[in-house]
TrEMBL record:
This is MFS transporter. Keywords: Cell inner membrane, Cell membrane, Membrane, Transmembrane, Transmembrane helix, Transport. The keyword S-adenosyl-L-methionine does not apply. SUPFAM superfamilies: MFS general substrate transporter. The lineage of its organism: Bacteria, Bacillati, Bacillota, Bacilli, Bacillales. NCBIfam families: mfs.
Amino acid sequence: MNNQRWLSQNFFTFFITWGIFLPYWTGWLVDAKHLTVSQASVVMGCGLLARATSNLFFFPTLAKYVHNKRLISILATGALITTLLYIPSTGFISLLIVTLLFSIFYPALLPAVESSATTLVQHGLVHYGKSRSYGSVGFVIAVLIISMLTGIFGNDIILWSMVIGLIVMLLMQQLATPKELLVVPTKEQRAKSLSMKTLWKIKGFPIVLLIVILLQGAHASYYSYGYIYLGDLHVDPFYMGMIINIAVICEILYFMKADTLFKNWRSSSLLLLAASGSSLRWLLIYLFPNIWVFVASQTLHALSFALAHFAFISYLTKTLPKEQIPNAQGLYSALGMGLSTAILTFLGGYLYEISPGLSFAAMLICTVPAIGILLATRNKYQF
């Protein structure tokens, strides 16, 4: 199979499920499983902590002993089995336990696919942005379809859509895979990558990682409460998916041109632009609590998420040796999209019940320091 096509298809398939999970899972726990918003925030927050632990330890360790294709298959199988455990679960405790198990397997699929992408980019076989844009397209399609299906069949369809998506992802692994992703790490490579200590010795890496942890964590309230917030603004459920998709469409447009747009910009300059756009995004939602401002703020997702993500992946591709890629991806996913998001989800849930706008304004505690750190370190570390 063509390497670019393989990566595009795997991004597309995974993000179909991500488009089910990210915008709708908290709302599904509230509407279909009858948890309160605060209970759902605890469940999702604990799930994010489990995700962080899994991505920090389980995923990098597993990646040292199996090739990429088998890694994705193992994680998809575990995710499917744990998703089915949601069916008989009804109470807060049982849903919490299932979510913890689910969070060990499912979110680790993201760094697994991203690691495959980084490996192929390092071999000069693919354009990352082009393939990643297919993932965003999958996300858009999923959000639109789920928005329509929930209007017809109710919120129970969210769970069954996830089950079908994971089955399709498993079937995708039966297709031909690029030979570069079928290489099992050697004993020598495992020895080189067993420790993450060498990562901290790479010039600029700790600073870049800290910045993306702050910028990705700043999306916590949007991911967990954006769907609920639209409901509080009295938006028809049919239109919620369309509104959420505005952000992803802007993300797609950026990724389609990411390999050439800002080509000569330094990573620090890209991250500074991303942090500025993110700060503006959350400030607008706080200051102007109406649907039209929320819609307009969705365009800033191209900066707050897509630009920050691409800047980090580009930095890894240019700077890190192959054997350290899973460690770096694990740290990024664990801390940037897991732990920091978990902590801020707890904070956002508490503030949301006081005033929805406060949960978004609180994200400035990440983005403003990120700007300060970038301005203070970008010339010293030359990243």
